[in-house]
Amino acid sequence: MDSVKPSSMTPKKGRLARKVAKVLHRRAATGIAPVDGVHKVKSQEQFKDDNKIGNKSTISLGQSFDISNDDDSQKRLAMEAFLAKLFASISSVKAAYAQLQYAQSPYDVDGIQAADQLVVSELKNLSELKRCYTKKQFDDHSTETTLLMAEVQEQKSFSKTYEIMGKKLESELRLKDSEIIYLGEKLEESNRLNRLLEKRLNQSGQLSMPVNLHRSGLSPSHFLAVVRFTVKSIRSFVKLMIDQMKAADWNLDAAADSIVQDVFYWRDDDKCFAFESFVCREMFSSFHLPNFSVPSQSLTWGKNQQQHFFRRFIELKSVKAKEYLAENPKSTFARFCMAKYLQLIHPHMETSFFGNLSQRNLVKSGEFPDTSFFAAFAEMAKRVWLLHCLAFSFEPEASIFQVRRGCRFSEIYMECVSEDALLLSENAPEADPPVAFTVVPGFRIGKTIIQCQVYLSQIQHKVNR
User: Fold this and answer.
1) Cα–Cα distances in Å, from 275 out to 328, 388, 457?
2) What is the largest CA-CA distance in the chain?
3) Which of 97, 135, 285, 422 has the fewest Cβ atoms within 10 angstroms?
4) How many degrees, rounded to 5, is the angle at CA 128 between CA 122 and CA 129?
5) Other C-beta atoms within 10 Å of 230: how many?
6) How high is the pLDDT of residue 60?
7) Which of 399, 382, 389 is nearest to 445 (CA)?
8) pLDDT at res. 140
9) Distance from C-alpha of 218 to C-alpha of 435, rounded to nearest angstrom
10) By the 8 A CB rule, do 376 and 420 touch?
11) Residue limits of the GIL1/IRKI C-terminal domain (predicted)?
């Protein structure tokens, strides 16, 4: 038996396998499926009916799903619209409240009423929104329009709030500018008052008479120091005299008016300057004369006049007036004290002060009272006397001057004692008050001017009817 060659059998089997696979593939494509070894073919009608049934079920499920999604979307949009209206209303309340605050400063009645009505209206809108939310009454229609309108309303409220804040900041800025100007003026005024106080402190502080002084070394600065020393003593005596007047129930207004008539005083305390003016006027009377109100004073000094007055100055400057008068009751200075006391202290004044004229009678008899009042007077008289002696120690001698009533103020020759008058003249230069009266006289030594002290005030003219 012949053997079979593998090469001759393999191609036939391969072709057969390919044909079987092709047939099976075609049957599967035409719907033929084997069941229990038997292949059944589904008809085209049945296939179409199955497709229709499948499509119907698919369409019904999709439609129900879309309806559910639409309901949720509508509810979500309605809630978004509600929240937008809520926040827009809150922004309106904030804007109305900001307007209410702005109208309160500065106080604006109409603005406050309008802002209050607006706040109430917006609060009512919030209350209505709360009611709608509680009852689930949302506006499902035109949600897009509602959202846009709420956005517009909120932006308008923001703009209004920022506008009011801007106005408030501008108002605060203007207020700060006004405060800066006011504080600048106060600072300038304080600096000016400090300069005045410093000047007064230098004049009325602890003063001492010049020491180790020689006539050849005399200068205007020495004379100025003695002037300040003298003015301080005069003011101390004036204060004592006013205290005595108050104790004696004097009418200080009438007393001041009897010294200088028709003067407007910036302050009640300024009336003390009238009494100071009176004391200076009496004490410096005849200051320009060598004998200085001393009766029967010899004038035989000749060329040694300056040296003579300088010796008097040195002799008395370091001694207390009371002690000097007790040791030298017949001296020129003692006669000067007698004359000035009788000239300055009127009998009616002394009687009202002390109830009698015992001090005056003692002075007339050449004796000196041992009282604090006379001791203060003697100390003041001593310093005026020393100033006179020093004035005639210069070559040429120092001269005295005062300013007439109604003159215009000049810083070269005058110094103002009323601070309020200086404030008025600085704030309104066209309304500079004139000189009402001279308080302390001024002095001239060669080309050096020592200012006189004056009181500036508007002079009142009484109308006679």
Assistant:
1) 31, 22, 16
2) 200
3) 135
4) 90
5) 24
6) 47
7) 399
8) 52
9) 33
10) no
11) 400-455
129-163 per-position pLDDT tens digit? 777 777 776 665 566 677 777 777 777 777 777 78
Residue owning tokens 């003695």: 226
**How far apart (Å, rounded) are the C-alpha atoms in residues 331 and 319?**
14
How far apart CA 392 and CA 215 sit, in angstroms, is 11
Least confident window among 15-19, 432-436, 443-447: 15-19
- Separation of alpha carbons 91 and 82, rounded Å: 14
332: tokens are: 């020129």
How far apart, in Å, are the Cα atoms of 40 and each of 28, 47, 419? 11, 13, 132
Rounded distance, CA 151 to CA 89, Å? 10
What pLDDT is attached to residue 291? 87
pLDDT of residue 13: 45
Q: Is the pLDDT at 203 greater than 60, yes or no?
A: no
pLDDT tier at 388 (50, 70, 90 boundaries)? very high
Residue 78, by phi and psi: left (phi above 0), alpha (psi -120 to 50) or beta? alpha
Q: Which two tokens stand for residue 366?
A: 């050449």
Q: In whole angstroms, what separates CA 315 from the centre of its chain?
A: 55
Q: What φ, ψ does residue 297 adopt, rounded to 5°?
A: -80, 130
pLDDT at 430: 52
The amino acid sitting at 458 is Q
Find the mean pLDDT for residues 104-126: 77
Could you tell me how far CA 300 lies from the centroid of its own chain? 66
Whether the Cβ atoms of residue 409 and residue 425 lie closer than 8 Å to each other: yes
* Residues 6+ away with beta carbon under 8 Å from 453: 231, 414, 415, 416, 417, 438, 439, 440, 442
| Single-letter amino acid code for the residue at 453 | Q
171 vs 368: CA distance, rounded Å: 73
Length of the chain: 465
Rounded CA separation 402/278 (Å): 13
Tell me which amino acid residue 454 is: V
Residues 147, 30: Cα–Cα separation, whole Å:
59
Q: Which of 182-196, 214-228, 247-261, 323-337 has the lowest mean pLDDT?
A: 182-196
Question: What residue ranges do the domains of the chain occupy?
Answer: 73-185, 220-392
Distance between CA 102 and CA 25 in Å, rounded?
A: 90
Helix (H, G, I), strand (E, B) or coil at 402: coil
Lowest mean pLDDT: which of 149-153, 262-266, 295-299, 405-409? 295-299
The letter for the amino acid at 179 is: E
- Residue 188 structure tokens: 């300038």
Beta bridge partners of 350: none
